[in-house]
Write a structure and sequence with these properties.
The complex is a heterodimer of chains A (135) and B (388). By secondary structure, chain A is an alpha+beta fold. Chain A is built from two helices and six strands; from the N terminus they run E-H-E-E-E-E-H-E. In chain A, the strands form two sheets. In chain A, strands 2-5-1-6 form a four-stranded antiparallel sheet, covered by helices on one side. In chain B, helix 4 runs antiparallel to helix 5 and helix 12 runs parallel beside helix 15. The chains are: A alpha+beta (135), B mainly alpha (388).
């Protein structure tokens, strides 16, 4: 019973085995990819392990506070930013091993040529609530 | 309008469910029917409380079960065999409740499924309440529960199970008592109490005592800003003396039977803490002895880690560090313990570095914040000494 974030990157992750940009895929390959992700989420809901899944647009802005009474400052996006998050899935599983197993399955989503992308996913544990018994 | 007694209502859940199963309903369908009856009770009872709450629930749950069976065309044939006046009830129900605990903690279930099924089928909580307590969507929790029911559907209801599996599930509910609308720690205590009245077993008593002794500290465990207050710094005047007295009494009766188990040993440690008027008066020597017992009973490395802390208090920080050196440093909280012992030993530079490192490794936010504050406190001290 621990939550993990499976993080997908637009960039910043090591290069996958099947490294063809999505805009070079056939429309059928894109549909197959999207279907795989949906089926994966549906399957996790049926196993009682799904918490959340979201995708992010690649473009965004940097925002910061600029002092009392002033509007926030926006800037960017900066082309040199190495890490760009594409989306995530949050799962609630019994063990770290199970989280790794599921990340492995998600990484097998088909890409160009209909074969798995072998995409690198980041698996990050949530900081949980403290246990009641500590001694 | 009389106040709805939800605790009473939910305490009847396992009995009612067991009656339906005895009458021939399969477990999954019976469990759904009992849930429906509970929902109806919440709706109807405030205005029209029944004289016999249990009888009312059985009647309504049985009707719900028959309705569902009738609605299910595929099950029409089975309907004919159950849609007749049920035979009179077999008398005592304590045994049925026990069977239900065994079923919901069956070894074929994963820990999270066993927890969810126990809270619903034995605890009478709704899927929504359980989902909220564990911060997952209701649909996910519904699937987790229905899968769990399918997993145990072939298990015979009259086979005795292993009480140790039930205790592990109840311990999980208590120890991961997340803060939601449902007080899972209190629910774990209620379910363990109910189990203790169904089976006479020293480890069930040990777990109940352990829960009561820890629950007693609840008010003192969190500061107004939500941060964790370590045991040594807790205001002991805020400990619940009634819960402590009950826990100690239950523990003493269990220990007198001379069948020591890990929960009794853990409760004994908690009782020694409860017994100390101030942190400075804690009987650490006895606590180390109990950790030695505990280490003999389980091979859990966390026990040896906690033992190292106790040794550090009983025999000095050097002895604690020596005990710690024998343990795998990848254990959770190993670095935090090392930081604490180095601070006690006067090596503030090492302690500050280790506190900061331990904060990075913390598995929960309260602990991380606490460890970061410890590092910051020592760093401020060290900087002041250096004259900045």
């Amino acid at each position: 019973m621990a939550k993990y974030l499976l993080l997908k990157h637009y960039r910043g992750a090591p290069a996958p085995a099947n490294d063809v940009p999505m805009d070079q895929w056939t429309p059928e390959e894109i549909s197959a990819h999207v279907q795989y992700m949906q089926d994966f989420a549906d399957r996790l809901e049926k196993t009682g392990e799904f918490v959340d899944g979201q995708a992010l647009a690649p473009e965004g802005a940097w925002v910061r506070y600029d002092g009392e009474g002033r509007p926030p400052v926006t800037d960017g996006p900066f082309a040199e930013t190495k890490d760009l998050i594409a989306g995530w899935m949050v799962i609630d599983v019994d063990s770290y091993d199970r989280a790794v197993e599921l990340a492995g399955e998600l990484s097998a989503a088909p890409g160009a040529g209909g074969t798995p992308i072998h995409e690198w996913l980041e698996v990050r544990p949530f900081l949980a609530e403290p246990p009641t018994i500590t001694e | 309008m009389p106040q709805m007694d939800e605790a009473l209502l939910r305490s009847l859940t396992p009995n009612v469910l067991a009656v339906l199963v005895r009458r021939g309903a399969d477990f999954a369908a019976a469990e759904d029917a009992v849930q429906d009856a509970l929902v109806e009770a919440v709706r109807v009872w405030p205005a029209d409380p029944p004289r016999d709450a249990k009888g009312w629930l059985i009647t309504v749950a049985w009707r719900k079960f028959l309705d569902a069976t009738r609605a299910d065309a595929a099950r029409r044939r089975r309907e004919e065999s159950v849609d007749e006046e049920p035979a009179p009830e077999p008398a005592p129900a304590a045994d049925d409740t026990l069977q239900l605990y065994f079923l919901c903690a069956h070894p074929s279930l994963t820990p999270s499924s066993a927890v969810a099924l126990t809270l619903r089928a034995v605890g009478g909580l709704t899927t929504r309440q359980i989902a909220q307590a564990y911060l997952v969507p209701e649909a996910t929790m519904a699937q987790r529960i229905s899968r769990a029911k399918r997993t145990v559907s072939g298990v015979r209801f009259d086979r005795p199970g292993d009480v140790a599996t039930v205790l592990r599930v109840l311990y999980l509910v208590f120890n991961e008592g997340y803060s939601g609308d449902v007080d899972l720690a209190a629910e774990a205590i209620r379910l363990t109490r109910q189990l203790a009245s169904a089976i006479d077993h020293p480890e069930v008593a040990g777990l109940l005592a352990l829960m009561l002794l820890h629950h007693a500290r609840r008010a003192a465990r969190t500061a107004p800003d939500g941060s964790l207050v370590p045991l040594a710094e807790q205001d002991r005047g805020r400990w619940d003396t009634k819960a402590i007295a009950e826990g100690v009494e239950i523990l003493q009766a269990a220990l007198a039977r001379d069948q020591l188990g890990e929960f009794q040993a853990q409760a004994a440690i908690a009782a020694l803490h409860a017994d100390a008027p101030t942190a400075g008066e804690t009987d650490w020597v006895q606590i180390v002895e109990w950790y030695d017992e505990l280490a003999r009973l389980t091979d859990n490395p966390v026990v040896r880690l906690n033992r190292a802390v106790a040794v550090g208090e009983a025999d000095g920080p050097r002895a604690g560090l020596a005990a710690l050196a024998a343990l795998d440093d990848s254990l959770p909280r190993h670095t935090a313990v090392a930081a604490y012992l180095h601070e006690r030993d006067g090596d503030l530079t090492t302690a500050a570095r280790l506190y900061a490192e331990a904060a990075q490794k913390a598995s929960n936010l309260s602990e991380r914040n606490h460890l970061t504050r410890q590092a910051a406190r020592l760093n401020a001290d060290l900087n002041a000494r250096r004259g900045r």
